[in-house]
Structure formats: structure tokens, C-alpha cells
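A quick word before the example. In earlier lectures we treated sequence and structure as two separate objects. From today on, think of them as two lines of the same record. Here is Plastocyanin-like domain-containing protein written that way.
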Amino acid sequence: MEQEGIQEEYVTLSDWYEDWNLDVARDKMMFPGGTTDPHMDGSLINGYEDDQLEIKIKPDTKAVVLRLVNSGMAGTQIIHAEGKHMVVIETDGILVKPYAVETLSLAVGQRYTVIIDISDDPIKLINGCNKMMGYITKMFWMAKSQPTGELRFDRNIKDLPGFYRGELYKELEPLPSADGNNIKILGDRENNEDMQRITLDYVYARDDDDVRQKYGTEMYKVNGKTIQDYMESPIEVESGKTLEIVINALDHMRHPWHMHGHQFQVISLGEKRDGTLRLGGEDEETTVSDAEKKYHEDLQYWIKSGKTPMTRDSINIEGGSFAVLRIEPNRPGDWLLHCHVEWHVAKGLGVVIRELPKPSQQSQQQPQWQQSNEPSSQTNSNETMTKDFSTSKVKVLSIYFLIMSILDVILYWIII
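And the structure line, produced from the sequence above:
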């Protein structure tokens, strides 16, 4: 419910393609030499391709609560309110201490809530949708009365004040939750023996004949496997034991990573070309890399400052760099961790993490993902099928993935 003098508005920002996504996948992606990033034809604001849209503001409004969503397929979105600061109060459903920015960057799938003072009328907002070479630029109004004149923006999006495509992971600090459990860094000691860690290295396998033979095109691989492989053989982790996830980008592109079922703390985040992060004897080299230095500097920052790392479920990771995320596995089941560029997840960029229940939980009650929805079948083949698809969690993930990739690619070929 809106308070007096406060108006709430939703703004979705998206890239746009003239062709149906199945046609894009068939004609531009899913064949040997096919692209990973089809050409985008435009951008949308609240579903409209038009430039100079207007959001009508009530006469007595003093401030606008703007809920921003990047609902696109691939492009990072930039938003700027000319002559105004936007006060960030929420990231991906997590309330944060108010933080003022001039320009905000949204990775695919990210959500922000900002407050903008509307005492001036009208307010010009500038939007840039990132494509392979530059930005698609549009402008729109927030106005109490009919705006006059034409919106113009003759500069480069990168010249906007406060422009930054990275993540404000040290600035956007979560507000304490009701139980206060979120106000410390997970695994708060640097050498926490109770913490488990997985390292994920991803790259586009351009010259892999086995992949081309299996999928008919090149695919992304994470630790040598595609997300399709992880659907059959998930990465298993323990419940109730802090999990540190190291993600290393071995290619040059920026990728937005998203996790299902959890909101993670962003412990450390490399800049472009900081290199891969190797910890805990993963690398025999004795010299300390830039990535390792950055990781330990960030850990010390959290410990000494007492601040809580930014917490959310989607984050941009620069090419040739790394990210370190931490979660508290407390939801036994299978959860996707994947690139949120829909073209990339269709080409294999992601993993499935299976949270195993604690022994005490397992003895008391089988988790949902292990429970069979139907009695055992009479034949061995049916028993195998029941075993493979017995859990409702796996079924949900399977349906999700089928929608995103198989229906978008393989079934389309069969249909036509």
C-alpha cells in the first residue's frame, strides 16, 4: 500500500529480438560454429519499444519508489535519473541500508528498489541496454504534468556520472533480519575448518569434437561438463555446513550468474583479468596470484569492518576473473546455479548442486527430492525411471530446463 506522498512504480527493462526465440536458436546458435550471442534488435521499457515513454506521477507525490527489473535475455541494463540520486533500498528481495547512486547497473535477472525525489518536474531517465558493441539508448519521463520538448541524450552511456558496470558488493549492506542471523559473514573465520568449498571453472568449448557430436554445436562447460550432464549427476554438498563457491571465468565475457533456492553472500569479486582463484592447495604454484591477494584482502575487510557482504541471488562476473559466494545449505534438494543469459544456459552454462540432508534429517524423514510420488513399477525399466524421476524437486528442475533448452532447441527441430 502506498503511503501519502509516495508513489510506487514498476519498470521492466529488456532486450528485444524480432525473431521468435526458437527461430533464433535454430538459425543462429544450435549448429557447428553457431553463435553464443545472437544479435539483438532493440530494447524494451515496460514491454514497449518506443522511446520517450512517460510515467505519470500524481500531483501530490513527493517521492517515487521505483522497482526495477532486468527481465531480458542477455543485455546488462543501465539506468540514470538526470540530476537526481537514486537511493537503493533493496537488492533481489533483500533490504539494504540506503545507499545513493547516480547510475545503476542491472545484470540479467537482477532486481533493485530505489527511491527518487520527485520535487522537480519532470524527471528524465536514461536507459542503456548493453549489446555486443555499445548500448541501445532510450529515455523516458516521470512527470506530473505533460512534459514539453524532446528528450535528447547525445553522450555515450559510459559517460554518465557514476557509471559502473561492476557490483557494489561492499556498499550495499543488508539490513539485519528479524532474527539477526544475517548480520555476519558466513563462515566468519578465514580458515574455517567446518566450511566446504567447490570451485567451478567455465569456458566455451570451441574445439571439442565429442561435444559437437553429442549436441550438434559447441557448448559451454563447467569443470568439463555441461548443465545437461549435471542434471544427471549433480554436485553433492552437505547441509548445515557453510558452502563457499568459487566461480572462475576462463573466457573474456561478462556473465550474470543466478542461484535458485538461496541468496548468497558476495565474499570477493575480481575485476576484469584478475585471473582465476586457486585456494586450498588447488594450484602447486608458490607465487600468490592477483586473484588470491584480492580474495584475502576482501576477507580481511569483512572481518575487520564487521560489515555484512552484499546478499542477493544474481551477480555479474567479469571475463577473465572470479567470484566467491557463500551460502548456508539448509534446503536439501537440487538447485540450479547458472548463467542467466538464456542463450548461454541453453548452451550448457550452469551446474546443479544437490544439498544432502543431515544424517539426523535422513533418519527421521526422507527429503522431498528422494521421495517417490508413485509405488514402484513392476518392471526393471519402470523402476529405473521411478528412481531417476522420483523426486518432485528433480521433476521441477527437469521441467525448467526442458523449457529453457530442450523445448527451445531440440524439440523445435523435431517439430519442424
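Notice the following. The chain has two domains: 6-159, 196-415. We will return to this example when we discuss secondary structure assignment.
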